[in-house]
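Try it yourself: sequence plus magnesium ion, in.
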Amino acid sequence: MLKLPTKPNPTSVNSSTAKTSDANINNAQKSVIVKLENVRKTYANGAVGLHDVNIKLYKGDFKFITGHSGSGKSTLLKLLYGAEQATDGDVIVNGFNLKGLKGNNLAMLRRKIGIVFQDYKLVPKRTVSENIAFVLMAQGYTYKEIQRRVQPALKMVGLMHKADCFPEELSGGEQQRTSIARAIVNTPPLVLADEPTGNLDPDNAWQVIKILKKLNSFGVTVLLTTHDEQLVRAANHPVLHLQNGYIV
Ligand SMILES: Nc1ncnc2c1ncn2[C@@H]1O[C@H](COP(=O)(O)OP(=O)(O)OP(=O)(O)O)[C@@H](O)[C@H]1O
Ligand SMILES: [Mg+2]
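Structure, out:
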């Protein structure tokens, strides 16, 4: 059974914050979940991450972002989850304009985005279940709700039998599947994955893609960066190609 670090605070998500955030959602863009308009990103040292990028993603899309190292793939995703701010232009995700978005509003947006990284970013001293549950605890879900959600997330990624293992006891593929379960346990409408298959062999990489495809079949929008052209061909989804910070 689930072993959680501590019993969480029973207070659930602050409903007044939720109302304010809902008001942000622009009904006119209901079916658009991600929009970049004339977005430029210049880093403090003058390096240009993106030049004048325009992108629209509709709810339910599954798109790859490809491009050589340094072409701006991670920069694009970072702008979407608010780890970086655009220098110019508008970045709109799930109805939020990220310009100047911070504090509670940024936290509310991030709750609606599942993020998967190449290096998994699991907490080594927590079991698989605890790594997944931790996200929900931090968001104030009740203990009962956490128990209700963790099992299906584990099942989705085929790791029910590894629930009580620690990350070091898992293969790379299993660690990545744990990180996907963590990303989706609060059922976000959007999953952003930055080179999620970068450290995996072809079989494990394909397992990850299959899980993301399944999520997409349930309506989750997926945006995923990769260098792996074979994988892109096999997965058969539209591709946005970046070259030196431009979409080409
Ligand atoms: N924090 C930063 N400070 C300064 N320059 C940065 C920073 N992050 C990225 N860059 C620069 O922005 C450009 C795009 O980098 P980005 O990380 O988005 O590329 P990428 O396509 O994800 O590459 P990779 O395939 O190697 O992960 C590069 O020229 C990079 O050096
Ligand atoms: Mg990158």
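One thing you can check immediately is this: The first strand starts at residue 32 and ends at 42.
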